[in-house]
Amino acid sequence: MNAFGIFCDTEVIIERVLNAGNYSGDTEYDEVCRVNADIQPNSGGGAQKEYGIFRDAQLVMYCEDNGHIKDGMRAVISGRRYVVTGTEHRNLGIKAYLKEDVK
Hints:
The termini are far apart. The radius of gyration is 14 Å and the shape is globular. The protein is built from one helix and six strands; from the N terminus they run ββαββββ. It is 6% helix and 50% strand. The protein has a six-stranded antiparallel beta barrel with strand order 1-2-3-6-5-4.
């Protein structure tokens, strides 16, 4: 655990999309792992300008790197589902940009 681990006080469920849904069925998800993370609002407009893929991300998630968190995965926080729109792997872990999953 790194020195900033004390800030990781929110449980996040990481899911992968199994079935993207269609006219006859709902989208299905498979839980991949659970992590404790530090969730912050995305107030850094610089990230939007520099990396267009992180555009419109509402939250930033910081957690230890476990190899399961990738772009396109889903992060469930307090019952709300977010799309992982971008990830940055750093020495202290992962910084992931999250955008609310709208169906």
